[in-house]
């Protein structure tokens, strides 16, 4: 069994296309990102739960297009004209709902980017019709945007995600741990992230490798 390193290493998240595992839960979204030149009206909303891979796919798209990436909460203070001079991705667009300056900035960015002939990618946890936007013109434009979903993972995708999360932390647990964890953990991407972080911290604090016994104890504790 591979030994767990006994000192803390930085987490280096792999965000390349080759690092993204394609499964039925995300295949539509991956295809839409790769076929970005065919987006209706040159815009797309990528929706999915926390940890589903939205940021990863955003970086894949930015590599393909040369797009700038900005968090929606930073739009109110941003240079909108500068952003609109090329493709742009806005992360967590749903988080500015009800924030008047943020909504105004996104409205102008949307209009200017498309008017300049560039493409716009937005990410959110839910579809635009669930965003409580106060600006009617922005709401109508968001709801008219093509939507791609990242859906709940199956066992295969969870195991692949766990493998990637361990790799990001430079960990190499026994491969048999992956299906064991996938069958017993909460079925969400965010749960996978928390589980791997907890296993990493437990291994570091105890000086022991990640094995099934440790995994069972961590799962029990996280379910309390």
TrEMBL record:
This is Uncharacterized protein. InterPro entries: P-loop_NTPase. GO terms for biological process: DNA replication initiation. One of its GO terms (molecular function) is DNA replication origin binding. SUPFAM superfamilies: P-loop containing nucleoside triphosphate hydrolases (SSF52540). GO terms for cellular component: plasma membrane.
